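re: that chain from earlier
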Amino acid sequence: MTQNLTEAAEGIIKNKGEMFASFDVNAFEVPGGRDELWRFTPLKRLRGLHDGSAPATGSALIEVVEQRGVTVETARRGDERLGQAGVPADRVAAQAFSSFNQATVVTVARDTEVAEPIEITVTGPGGGATAYGHLQIRVEELSRATVVVDLRGSGTYADNVEIIVGDSANVGVIWIADWADDMVHVSSHHARLGKDAVLGHVAVTRRHARR
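^ sequence. v structure.
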């Protein structure tokens, strides 16, 4: 029995591309502690992000420092670009996709090399508030850029992040989780790479000393 469970777990890890995915939150069962993908997650601490009991009561703020060759847009649900990098593969990601009010789309123009890092700051909705968000980073063909995403503030937040890299483009994404101690954040990252594209992705979590 133990061997069968181990083989099943290894199968999940090896075949993530074959996992069930849907934009419909109701297509997923509420995860429990025995579910393989969630068994190391303290579900009781997610403040309802996983079971539909956490309606949005606030909003997160996404700010992008202006750079030449980089455009920043606000997109509504239904924009054909949203979801191009991947479909939610778990209930929290599907809940976030169906609950955000507006998405932020950051685009690096074709054949552009951005000399300085593109700085994106995401600020939580604040203590006691819940928000859902969506961020898409698009690097068009033949372009090069480095993106630094700095996460700050407090509250409860779930989001999807899409990274779309065009043919022969190169992008490095540095993800810095500098949340306050009371923050709860669940994030799903999706990537789609074109021919000969390169993506580097680094996630950094800063630990705060407790007094």
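The CA atoms of residues 48 and 54 lie 5 Å apart.
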